[in-house]
User: Fold these one by one.
Assistant:
Number 1:
Amino acid sequence: MNNIMNSGLSIVRSLLGDKLGGVIDWISNKNNVKSSSVSSLMSLAAPFLMGLISRRVKSDNLGVSGLMD
């Protein structure tokens, strides 16, 4: 589980960059959830979502422009 969390956090950091803390705080405040819980959920969800996107790209033979559409 820690490997998934670490890779997920890396994905989220690369996508959001220096805005990560602000996004986590915003979600936390809007939903009355601890920031650490939001961070954990985002870290768990990122590899799952990237897997879904990857499967879609492969199954539909999408390039960059197809993915953007």
Number 2:
Amino acid sequence: MMLLLFSLIGAAGSILLPVPQAIRAFKVSTEGVSLATYLGLFTVAIIWIPHGIFHDIPLLSISNFIATFFIFTVLYSIARDNKNYKIILYSILMAAVFLTAFLVGGTVIRVMITTGLSVFLRLPQLQKSFMSKNIDGISVNTWIISGLCNAAWFCVGII
């Protein structure tokens, strides 16, 4: 029962996490938003889809499948604002490389990719915000939801 509860919270959080940032990026600006963080988020969301399938956690797969569309909206908005649409190609290529490594790699590689990327992908955003002292384009709601979502998925992993 607890597994289902935390999975539902994690799934809802995974879907909702990128929504406030996607809306802000598409309608307002991507100023201050880290491309590296959103490349990482996109890649991780893609990778969590087969991970959920392999470990019989369908809500993980479904929620991340939906989340990829919102995360891609942020990447598209960054490309649009920087007038550099190669960013979209780089996003897809990076996700494909990590997905391939995940699918052909053993357990250690899979854990390193899912956990490593998930933990470290937020660092570029923190660094950019700290160094530039500019958080104008960043959605605080996205970061709050991210913390709650990660806590729920952590509980799923423990259970």
